[in-house]
Fold these 2 entries.
Entry 1:
Amino acid sequence: MDSLLTNEASLPRLLYLGDVPVERGLHGSALLYRLLEVYPKNKLLIVEGSRKSNLTLQLSGVQYHGYKQVWSRLLQTRFHSYASSAATLCAPMRGRPVPDFVLSFRPQAVFTVVWGYVWAAAAAYAERANLPLHLVVHDDWLNVEARLALERRLIDQRLRYWYPKAASRLCVSPYMAEAYCRRYGAAADVLYPSCAADVPIAAEPPVTLRGACDPFTVAFAGTIHLDYPQALSRMATALRCIGGRLIVYGPEPHVSARSMLEQSNIEMRGKVSSPELIRQCRTEAHAMFVPMSFDEQDRSNMETSFPSKLADSTAVGIPVVIHGPEYCSAVRWAFENPGVAEVVTEATVNALVMALARLRDPTRRLQLAGQAIFRCKQYFAHARAVSLIYSQLSESISRRRLPAGP
């Protein structure tokens, strides 16, 4: 990575155009922020679609612009399904005309995330401008939520056309890469979520893991969505059986989830920075909790997506508890890396109680913590992710080969 960072001439003037905001946040936003936080600022232009990033969380010194969508208001109403289909249909046409700020920037490559609607506009613009297109697949947009059959066909057609023709394809897990290769006939590189550039991965477990660990404390960091309220409620109930507590970091949960989290041994702490999260968890927590959805309607995305929270959770250097069905990506990854986590594949309080009982053993805690640190360096180091995307961007400049239009 060092050679790429010192030789800025090898990197293109990069246009990011997409619906996933680039901010110091969670999920796909965090992945993008961490990939681009050390990119040469004078060679980067960020254009965001349906959701704009928070000004206080943006990359410092980088140009940000918005990309207005005709259907954005209707997408927030009861007509969402119809507006979503219309937005998908019109997305490539929204690439015309190109805003002046894009033309004056003179991009040499286009970077986007397959999510929402603007990614198709980015692909169409890259094709018309004869620029390399770099696609990131963080979630399975085709199957991530209920949508009309027409919209699903449109998304599938767009992916069949642009996915194989992209200069690079970056999938968040090997399971996503395999699924998309079967569907669209093109291989992809695996871009796991990464730690932030300013987050040092723990060198060794904290000394607190050697002691009694009373009260036994588990921490969760992330957005509370899908069936995560149920998972957090189960964990809190299991911890209550041993006099333990659960600390929850992240955005304020939706009102429908709050009732499940109103337990005496749950402490809500809100959002904190990654360095502060790791500092607090190393001081106070004895395990990190990474739940995945057991809901059958989420199965496709659970099989292929990969939880971004695993990067920071393993960087803490304490045991990780992964709670999800056997088919989900986090569980499969843990089974492929034995000893990296305490894995619970049953959606029951009793199964979590048994896992916590195993974690009461200091030897077990230290073994899991050591493996978490080792695998974090292997899979989620910032330098690993940045080196991959920078090499792809640099190679695309030298190749300058693009497919003909439809």
Entry 2:
Amino acid sequence: MPEARVGGARLHYLDEGTGDPALVLLHAFPLRAAMWAPQLDTLAPLTRVVAPDLVGFGGSDAPEDPAAYSVEGWADQVAGLCDHLGLDRVVVAGLSMGGYAALAFLRRHPHRLAGLALADTRPGADAPEVAERRRRQIDQIRRDGTQGVIETLLAGLLGDHTRRHRPEVVATARSLMDSAPAGLVGALDAMIRRPDAGADLGRVAVPATVVVGDQDTLSPIEVARGMHERTPGAHLAVIPGAGHLSSLEAPGPFSAALANLVARSRRPGGHH
């Protein structure tokens, strides 16, 4: 797996295929870039696909100081990785936490976007009860390590159908959650601190797609519909039988939605 030094941090990333614009995939919490393996298989024949381990996860650096983590920091690291790879404008697709980073990229580097996909995510800041739950998870990781939190998270991340009938997907998701405790703590803290990004949706000036699993209980379908309505010219892809990790639970329909976005991003004025 190649790595780059970006803003003083070591970033691991996956990089397959050729073509323009490249598709940059930003992973969910508490997973890593390898969650995108089905999309790399399907989409690399269509265009170049790059998937970083965000700082704190997988093979990338995981600083001990929670202040080293923010959605803005992740967005800037993605822009720095694009510089390192010689990529100018890219299609950015983020799922869940990766969606928060994608929205920060939209805020900070709008001129670099050729397209935007927001999957199983939400534009709003944490509600008080969500922030409180994250603080309890931080305390639990510091006290007991990551295992207990990972099992709790797993239950919410996957749809009911997946949990009941697809043990191999459950096992895959669990195997992708083995990042450093400091990374999980830093990311939870960064998500608590992230700003409301709702106003940014109206400024999207590129082809956009909102994706949601119809069994997603964390960022449910009504949140996705609200994002879709607020994002000019966006498409909405609802994925049957999938929960919050729709890219892993239903990789075929998810990849098809991204392939459509890449095709629209290649056309002049593709967002109208």
